[in-house]
Backbone:
C-alpha cells in the first residue's frame, strides 16, 4: 500500500485484523495528515482505531430488542404467506440439529418467503433482502473517529438511508463536522493515483496492427479492443489491436497493477506542433497523440513514440523500450529486361559481324566449289548429276548448320579448297558458340544489383536531383529531426512537399516505384525489408534515438513505468518481443534469396520465343509466295506449251504447202 503511493484506503476487516492493520499503518505514518480511511463496522470496534477514520454503523446496531422485533415480524409475515399458499404442504421440522442428516424441505420454501418480505417502517429502518438473502436498503450512520478531551469518541457526521418519497437510497454527509487524520479540518489534498488509465496508440506495423471487426465479430484473446479516441468518425466501426506494443502494454499493466481503456489516435498522427487560430489569435498547439496527452485527455501513450527534445518539453517519457535510428527504404533496382535480353552476351557490333561472316563464308564456299576442277559442278557435267552440285542456297544452309550445330545433310563442299574453308568456319563457330554460352552463364550468376543509395550523405539526396524523390511523414519525429539539422535544410526543403500523412502510404508508393526513397524509423523499415525481399534499407543508421512510453508531465506513473521497462530488458522480455514481432525469421529468407543465383525468366528470353514465332510466320509467308510463284510458273509453262504446239503446227502446215 505504501509503495503504491495511495492516499485513500478502504478497509474491510474484522476487529482482530483491523487492530494489526491500524498498528502497522500508524507506525508507517499512513494515518497522518494527507491520508483518508474508510472502514466497515467491525473495524471500528478495534481498540486502537486512529483519529480521523470514517466508517459505517447500522442504525440501532446494539439495540437487540429492535432487531428481534423486526425479525419476528418478518418471520411471522413469511409463515402467514406460506400458510395462505395452498400449493405448499408444510412438513414436520427436524427434532434437533445435531448431525441428524435430515433436511427440512419446507425450510427451503420458508427461506424464499422470508426473502420476499419487505418491512418499510421497521425499528431498524427499512427491512428488505436480495436474492442471496442479504439485507438491503438498511440505514447506516456515517461515523467519524474524533479525539475529545484525549478520549476517542464516535461522532455521527452523515447518514445512508432509504428515502421513501424518492424510493431510493440516499447519502448525506456534513463535511464541516469531519475531523480528518492529523486532526485536520480540511479534506486532504493528497491524491489517489488513477489506476484505470486512458491509453492511446497508433497503427504502425509491427508494433501495432489494427484489424476492423466484421458485424457480430469480437477480438481474439491476443487482441485488445481499440476504438478511435475522442472523435465522431467510424462510430459504428469496431477495431482490434495487437502487436509488439500491445504485448508490452499487457505485461506493463500486470507488472505495476493498472487497468486501461485503449483507443486509437483520433487523427492517425503522432502529433505536430502547429499554429491554430482561436478567436483570431494564433496559438501553437500539439495535434495527434501528443496533443491528447498535453491536454490531459489521455494518461499514457503506448506506441513506437520516438523520444526527442521537442516532445520531451511537453510530456514525460519513460526509459526507451527499444533503441533505433533513422534509415532509408528503397526498392532494389532490377536489371532491365528487354525482348533482346538473350543477345546481351555479345555487343551489337559483334552480332553484325557474325551475321555478315555467315553469308560471306557461304558465298566463298559456293565460289570455291563452283570454280574448282574437283568441285561438284565439274563432276556433274561428266557424271550427269548436276542436281547434287553445291549451289548458293546449299552453301548458306551449310554455313548456318555449322554455326548452329544443327547437323549437315547433303550439299557439302567437295573441293579441297572449300573443305579447308569449311573446317576453319567450324572452328570459328565452335569458339563463337562457346564464348556466347560462357558469357550467358556469367549473366545468370551475376550478383543482384546493390542499393543505389549509400546513405543520408549520398550526393544525389543532398543535391536534390529532379528524378530522385524522397519523403518522410508529416509532423513525425523524423520530420522534426530534419528541421533541427542545419546541414540537411536544403534536402528538407525539397522533400517537405513530398511528405506523406502515414508511413503505410509512403511504403506502398516505394513498392510501386512512385517514391524512390522513404526516410523513417529503422525498426519499421527493417521489418518491411524482411517482409518483402524486393525492398532494402540503404546506408548506416543516423539520428539514433529510442522509443518510449509517453505520459503526462509529472505523472505519478513515470517512475513505475521506467522501472518496469528496465526490468523487462533485464529479464529478456523485450528480446522475446523482438523475435516474435520484428524478426519473425524473414531476414533469413531474404538472405537466402540474396544468395540464390539469378535465373532467366520469360521476361529475359521472350525475344527468343518471338524469334521462333517470327521464323514460323516467315516460313508460312515464304511457302505462300512459293506456291503463288509455282502456280504462276505452271500457267506460264502451259502458255508456252500451247504456243510451241501452235508454232509446230504452223511450221508443219508451211512445210506441207512448200512441198506442194
Residues:
Amino acid at each position: 500500500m505504501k509503495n503504491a503511493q495511495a492516499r485513500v484506503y478502504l478497509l474491510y476487516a474484522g476487529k482482530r485484523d483491523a487492530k494489526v492493520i491500524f498498528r502497522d499503518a500508524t507506525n508507517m505514518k499512513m494515518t497522518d495528515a494527507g491520508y483518508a480511511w474508510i472502514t466497515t463496522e467491525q473495524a471500528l470496534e478495534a481498540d486502537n482505531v486512529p483519529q480521523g477514520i470514517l466508517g459505517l454503523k447500522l442504525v440501532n446496531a446494539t439495540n437487540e430488542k429492535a432487531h428481534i422485533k423486526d425479525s419476528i415480524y418478518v418471520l411471522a409475515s413469511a409463515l402467514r404467506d406460506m400458510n395462505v399458499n395452498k400449493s405448499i404442504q408444510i412438513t414436520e421440522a427436524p427434532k434437533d440439529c445435531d448431525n441428524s442428516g435430515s433436511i427440512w424441505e419446507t425450510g427451503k420454501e420458508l427461506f424464499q418467503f422470508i426473502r420476499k418480505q419487505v418491512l418499510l417502517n421497521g425499528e431498524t429502518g427499512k427491512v428488505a433482502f436480495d436474492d442471496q438473502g442479504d439485507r438491503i436498503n438498511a440505514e447506516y450512520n456515517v461515523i467519524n473517529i474524533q479525539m475529545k478531551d484525549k478520549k476517542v469518541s464516535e461522532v455521527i457526521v452523515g447518514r445512508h438511508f432509504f428515502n421513501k418519497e424518492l424510493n431510493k437510497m440516499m447519502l448525506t454527509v456534513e463535511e464541516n463536522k469531519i475531523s480528518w487524520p492529523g486532526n485536520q479540518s480540511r479534506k486532504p489534498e493528497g491524491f489517489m493515483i488513477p489506476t484505470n488509465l486512458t491509453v492511446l496508440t497508433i497503427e504502425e506495423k509491427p508494433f501495432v496492427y489494427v484489424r476492423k471487426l466484421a458485424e457480430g465479430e469480437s477480438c481474439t484473446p491476443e487482441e485488445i479492443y481499440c476504438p478511435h479516441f475522442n472523435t465522431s468518425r467510424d462510430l459504428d466501426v469496431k477495431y482490434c489491436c495487437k502487436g509488439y506494443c500491445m504485448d508490452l502494454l499487457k505485461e506493463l499493466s500486470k507488472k505495476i497493477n493498472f487497468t486501461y481503456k485503449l483507443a486509437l489516435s483520433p487523427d492517425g498522427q503522432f502529433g505536430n506542433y502547429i499554429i491554430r487560430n482561436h478567436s483570431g489569435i494564433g496559438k501553437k498547439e500539439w495535434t495527434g497523440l501528443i496533443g491528447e496527452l498535453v491536454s490531459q485527455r489521455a494518461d499514457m501513450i503506448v506506441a513506437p513514440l520516438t523520444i526527442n527534445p521537442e516532445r520531451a518539453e511537453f510530456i514525460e517519457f519513460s526509459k526507451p523500450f527499444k533503441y533505433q535510428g533513422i534509415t532509408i527504404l528503397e526498392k532494389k533496382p532490377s536489371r532491365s529486361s528487354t525482348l533482346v535480353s538473350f543477345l546481351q552476351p555479345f555487343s551489337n557490333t559483334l552480332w553484325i559481324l557474325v551475321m555478315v561472316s555467315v553469308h560471306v563464308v557461304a558465298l566463298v564456299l559456293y565460289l570455291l566449289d563452283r570454280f574448282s576442277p574437283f568441285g561438284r559442278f565439274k563432276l556433274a557435267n561428266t557424271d550427269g548429276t548436276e542436281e547434287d552440285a553445291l549451289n548458293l542456297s546449299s552453301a548458306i544452309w551449310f554455313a548456318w548448320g555449322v554455326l548452329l550445330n544443327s547437323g549437315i545433310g547433303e550439299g557439302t563442299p567437295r573441293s579441297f579448297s572449300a573443305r579447308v574453308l569449311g573446317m576453319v568456319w567450324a572452328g570459328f563457330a565452335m569458339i563463337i558458340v562457346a564464348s556466347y554460352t560462357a558469357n550467358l552463364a556469367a549473366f545468370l550468376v551475376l550478383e543482384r544489383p546493390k542499393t543505389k543509395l549509400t546513405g543520408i550523405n549520398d550526393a544525389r539526396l543532398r543535391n536534390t536531383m529532379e528524378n530522385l524523390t524522397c519523403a518522410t511523414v508529416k509532423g513525425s519525429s523524423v520530420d522534426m529531426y530534419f528541421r533541427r539539422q542545419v546541414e540537411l535544410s536544403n534536402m528538407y526543403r525539397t522533400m517537405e512537399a513530398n511528405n506523406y500523412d502515414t508511413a503505410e502510404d509512403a511504403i506502398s508508393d516505394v513498392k510501386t516505384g512512385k517514391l524512390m526513397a522513404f526516410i523513417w524509423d529503422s525498426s519499421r523499415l527493417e521489418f518491411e525489408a524482411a517482409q518483402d525481399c524486393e525492398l532494402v534499407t540503404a546506408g548506416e543508421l543516423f539520428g539514433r534515438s529510442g522509443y518510449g512510453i509517453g505520459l503526462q508531465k509529472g505523472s505519478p506513473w513515470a517512475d513505475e513505468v521506467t522501472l518496469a521497462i528496465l526490468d523487462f530488458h533485464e529479464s529478456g522480455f523485450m528480446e522475446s518481443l523482438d523475435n516474435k514481432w520484428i524478426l519473425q525469421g524473414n531476414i533469413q529468407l531474404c538472405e537466402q534469396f540474396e544468395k540464390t543465383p539469378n535465373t532467366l525468366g520469360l521476361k529475359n528470353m521472350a525475344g527468343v520465343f518471338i524469334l521462333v514465332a517470327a521464323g514460323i510466320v516467315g516460313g508460312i509467308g515464304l511457302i505462300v509466295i512459293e506456291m503463288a510463284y509455282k502456280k504462276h510458273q505452271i500457267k506460264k509453262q502451259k502458255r508456252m506449251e500451247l504456243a510451241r504446239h501452235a508454232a509446230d503446227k504452223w511450221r508443219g502446215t508451211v512445210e506441207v504447202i512448200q512441198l506442194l
Q: What stands out?
A: The chain has six domains: 8-59+139-177, 64-136, 198-320+550-600, 322-333+447-547, 341-444, 603-660. The domain at 322-333+447-547 is CATH 3.40.190.10 (D-Maltodextrin-Binding Protein; domain 2). The longest helix spans residues 602-659. The longest strand covers residues 151-163.
